[in-house]
Amino acid sequence: MSRQSMRANDPKKVSGELFTLTYGSLIAQLLKDYENVDDVNRQLERMGYNIGMRLIEDFLARANPGRCYDLRDTADKIQQAFKLYLGVSPSIGSWSPGGDEFSVVLETNPMAEFVELPDHCLGLRYSNILAGVIRGACEMVQLEVMAWFIADQLKGDNVTEIRVKFVKRLEDAIPAGED
Amino acid sequence: MSGSKQRPSILDKSLSRGKTEVSLTAYALLFSEMVQYSHNRVTSVNELHNKLSELGQRVGVRMVELLFVRERNYKRETKLLNILLFVKGTLWKSLFGKEADKLDRATDDERIYYLIEKEPLVNRFISVPRDKSSINCAAFIAGIIESVLNATGFPAKVTALWHKGTTFMVKFDDTVLTRDKQLEGR
């Protein structure tokens, strides 16, 4: 007989497979629409940015994380958010000597299950949406950061690694613009 | 692992058991971006539905592969009613954690079935503008159902309607009914 998955049916959760496949379908659509991996990477970052700007509200309300006093705080909270939203615990490491840059290292990447990059898509940063999410969310708490992928399991690396670099603190007076 | 940058083949990994979960917020925001993206590239409600359905179809074909290997021991369905029950039960449970609310057959046309879901996941956070009240983002799920039926050999057209919540109207191709009748005798 069939082996049904006994999910606890938490209304705040959805199936990881639905999420992964939905994201995969979006990527396929973008590749079809743009026909150029660089444009797809950019579009993914932009979508992530939009998501991040809204996600931070939910995070602040749900996790009540308090204020970040330094970048190490921020890194901890990014780690916490990954756990809350994607159900994975990345490790934080590789701090730069100046303390303004760190890596978020994922052993498993829930965005990329069932995924294999074909040869003509090696330039594609498949999970680039995550970099956008980090940037958008940080911007809403007055932190300008840059985030980019430096390692990706889909390209044969052992782990997936996102590098985050602090750029500057944003002043209250500047309203955060739409994209 | 050796240091060589050999990309791992997906077939080397064991099949996921389908227990992973992500937050509903993450899914809702991702889906919302997809709707907005699609919305920006179309000019009519119909086109939007087609776009969303297309996005769903790519999810559907993959679910067929996954579920028949994992849950059904590689055995596909051949009977019309069974495949509909598969959609209502197994497929719905793996995607949404519950069975679909109801399965009905149209009284006037034997090719048409209705699958009723009061509150589909993807519509929970979508507010429909009043001047375009026919928009239904469940077109995405309609696309999933359609591709599942097509991939299992039951060509059909699936549309999402606002009726008792959301209803998916499944209209099978004539060939499906003819074949099903032939099978009945055995």
Structure notes:
The complex is a heterodimer of chains A (179) and B (186). Chain A is an alpha+beta fold and 179 residues long. Chain A contains four helices and five strands; from the N terminus they run βαααββαββ. Chain A is 42% helix and 17% strand. Chain A has a four-stranded antiparallel sheet with strand order 2-3-5-4. In chain A, β2 and β3 form a beta hairpin. In chain B, β4 (156-162) and β5 (166-172) form a beta hairpin. In chain B, α2 (45-70) crosses α4. The N and C termini of chain B lie far apart (54 Å). The chains are: A alpha+beta (179), B alpha+beta (186). β1 (13-15) of chain A pairs antiparallel with β1 of chain B.
SSE map:
The complex is a heterodimer of chains A (179) and B (186).
Chain A: E1 13-15, H1 16-34, H2 37-63, H3 71-86, E2 91-93, E3 101-106, H4 128-140, E4 143-151, E5 160-169
Antiparallel strand pairs in A: 2-3, 3-5, 4-5
Helix pairs in contact in A: 1-2, 2-4
Chain B: E1 21-23, H1 24-40, H2 45-70, H3 80-96, E2 102-105, E3 112-117, H4 139-151, E4 156-162, E5 166-172, H5 174-184
Antiparallel strand pairs in B: 2-3, 3-5, 4-5
Helix pairs in contact in B: 2-4
Outline:
The complex is a heterodimer of chains A (179) and B (186). Chain A is an alpha+beta fold and 179 residues long. Helix content of chain A is 42%, strand content 17%.
Q: Helicity range of the residues of chain B?
A: 40-55%
Largest interface: A-B, 48 and 46 residues
- Mean pLDDT level of chain B: 85
Number of β-strand runs of chain A: 5
Poorly predicted tracts of residues of chain B:
none
Strand percent estimate of chain A: 15-25%
Basic shape of chain A: globular
**Lateral arrangement of strands in the main beta sheet of chain B:** 2-3-5-4
Strand order of the largest sheet of chain A: 2-3-5-4
Q: Beta-sheet strand percentage of chain B?
A: 5-15%
Helix content of chain A: 40-55%
- What general form of chain B does the structure show? globular
Radius of gyration of chain A: 17 Å
Radius of gyration of chain B: 18 Å
Order of helices and strands of chain B: EHHHEEHEEH
Distance between the termini of chain A: 51 Å
* Largest beta-sheet details of chain B: 4 strands, antiparallel
| Main beta-sheet annotation of chain A | 4 strands, antiparallel
CA distance, first residue to last residue of chain B: 54 Å
SS class of chain B: alpha+beta
User: Helical stretch count of chain A?
Assistant: 4
